[in-house]
Design a protein that fits this description.
This protein is an alpha+beta fold. It has helices at residues 14-53, 55-65, 120-165, 169-180, 227-232, 255-263, 296-304, 306-340, 345-360, and strands spanning 72-75, 78-81, 92-98, 104-111, 185-195, 201-211, 224-226, 242-244, 268-276, 279-288. It folds into 3 domains: 14-67 and 89-165, no CATH class; 182-304, Beta-Lactamase (2-Layer Sandwich); 319-360. A 6-stranded antiparallel beta sheet has the order 7-6-5-10-9-8. A hairpin with a 2-residue loop joins strand 9 and strand 10. Helix 1 (14-53) packs antiparallel against helix 3, helix 3 packs antiparallel against helix 4 and helix 8 packs antiparallel against helix 9. The protein starts with 13 loop residues before the first helix and ends in a 15-residue tail after the last helix.
């Protein structure tokens, strides 16, 4: 709350009051942006803690997303990369490399010398070396993923600043797609949810779109998705983030939805529900015309953008509502002044019909008196 006191009653003018309201709005926006940045940082920290506590899943993800060598072999010719795996024969001393949690991430193999077979002491020494290698590998993995998380934190901060500088929802989608940087995604849609008087979702309206210029153009702004259409595209009603790497071969997609994807040439897609508190206010839909396996970094960044996008979307909706209300009030004042200037009943009715017709753009507007039936 911003409170200003004056020694003189009524010292604050209307301009002062409007200025204070504007300052309050700016302060509220700054506070909200700070909260969102803190929230995203906490999310990233939570994910990093999860990596450390769940080594198995961490290594699985790391292998999938990192371009890792299979390994290296040393012989009398020197050290060279392992190509397509190296078969470990029975006469090798094979020691598994286990990271925290017991996950086996590799092996250390030493060829036995028939003249000098590996002793128990040798095995114990190899196990100690293997444990040290495993610790070093785990440390390197965590370091690499921490650097990735820090890079994403910086990107989120940059995106947050760019969001604040956008003047409309079209620019917002440009920033989102540039931040994600997924080459396969060639179009995206931003929709606003419409609810019935019973607070049930009844439709979604497209309020912004983005297209990189290649392939099929996106759905037009203003397109109205009825509840019947949403039942064919149930992912647009989802309250969780969904990724489809290949819509043509995804068991989660029913035949009706698949046919619509085929007609619109949507081969990969990502759906991001946008919430403000517990209420879903919209959805962001990414589309690609070729299969794409969404990486963990893309998934994390996409999900982390949701709170900021939802806030910008809600602010824009409220701004447009306030603007329309102001326009209606201005129009009402103009019509009222013209009506009040009339000196006859006939002039009042004529002005009312004409001005209301202009204001609403209606093909016909009628202003008439209610006449009692004559006896």
């Amino acid at each position: 709350m911003l409170d200003v006191q004056s020694d003189q009653p009524g010292a604050l003018t209307e301009d002062d009051r409007l200025l204070l309201e504007g300052l309050c709005g700016q302060i509220a926006v700054a506070i909200e942006q700070t909260r969102l940045r803190q929230e995203m940082t906490e999310r990233l920290d939570e994910v990093n803690r999860l990596y450390q506590s769940m080594s198995r899943e961490g290594w699985k993800t790391y292998r999938r997303n990192a371009n890792l060598p299979i390994g290296f072999v040393f012989d009398q010719a020197g050290t060279r990369p392992v190509e397509d795996g190296l078969p470990i024969e029975e006469n090798y001393a094979n020691i598994p490399m286990r990271v925290l949690g017991g996950e086996v991430v590799g092996s250390l193999a030493i060829a036995n010398d028939p003249d000098q077979p590996t002793s128990d002491e040798d095995y114990a020494f190899l196990q100690q070396v293997s444990d040290q290698i495993a610790l070093a590998l785990e440390s390197a993995r965590l370091s690499a993923q921490t650097q990735t998380a820090l890079a994403q934190t910086e990107k989120l901060s940059e995106v947050s600043l760019r969001f604040a500088q956008t003047s409309n929802l079209q620019e917002l989608l440009v920033v989102v797609n540039q931040a994600l940087g997924i080459p396969a995604v060639n179009r995206s849609l931003l929709g606003v949810s419409n609810y019935s008087s019973e607070d049930e979702l009844e439709s979604i309206d497209i309020v912004a779109n983005w297209w990189n210029g290649s392939g099929t153009e996106p759905s037009e702004i203003g397109r109205h998705y009825t509840l019947e259409t949403l039942n064919v595209l149930p992912m647009l009603k989802s309250n969780t983030t969904i990724f489809f790497n290949d819509t043509f071969n995804d068991e989660r997609i029913n035949s009706s939805t698949k046919q619509m994807f085929i007609r619109q040439n949507i081969r990969a897609a990502a759906v991001l529900p946008l919430f403000l508190g517990a209420r879903q206010i919209g959805v962001l839909f990414l589309e690609a015309e070729e299969p794409h396996e969404f990486t963990l970094d893309e998934i994390r960044l996409f999900a982390a953008l949701a709170p900021q996008i939802a806030t910008v979307l809600e602010n824009r909706i409220q701004f447009e509502r306030a603007q329309k209300q102001a326009e209606r009030e201005t129009t009402l004042n103009i019509i009222s002044q013209k009506i009040q200037s009339a000196t006859t009943v006939e002039a009042v009715l004529q002005i009312a019909a004409r001005e209301l017709g202009h204001a609403l753009g209606a093909p016909m507007t009628v202003a008439q008196l209610s006449m009692k039936d004559k006896e």
